Amino acid sequence: MTDSPSGSRPDFAQLDALSTEELRERAFSLAREHRDVRFFWSVLRHLPNADEAEALDGSPNSVGPTVDEAVALWREFTGHGYAESEPLLRAAFIDYLLKH
Q1: Are 25 and 33 in contact (CB under 8 A)?
Q2: In the chain, where are the structural domains located?
Q3: Residue 47: Cβ-neighbour burial (10 angstroms; 0-12, 13-18, 19+)
Q4: 71-98, pLDDT tens digit by residue?
């Protein structure tokens, strides 16, 4: 990801200036590239309707969720809004983007 004028990765301030939806899109795109099911699982556990995500088994050694299943579940939940989880989700998205 090269969003700054110098071609380097964005810093915290640049990412924090983005909307939550833009952060989500960037983090999800990167996580899909890396097939990072753990990231999707951690995000799903913090959604307002996370009790519905209990059907997914987050253990890395199980057949469990795939990236596509996690994305599909996220899309189902996005109609419900971020609610009180927005600050936590923003932090997770920014952290993921900074680390990867």
Answers
A1: no
A2: 12-99
A3: buried
A4: 666 666 665 566 788 898 899 999 999 9
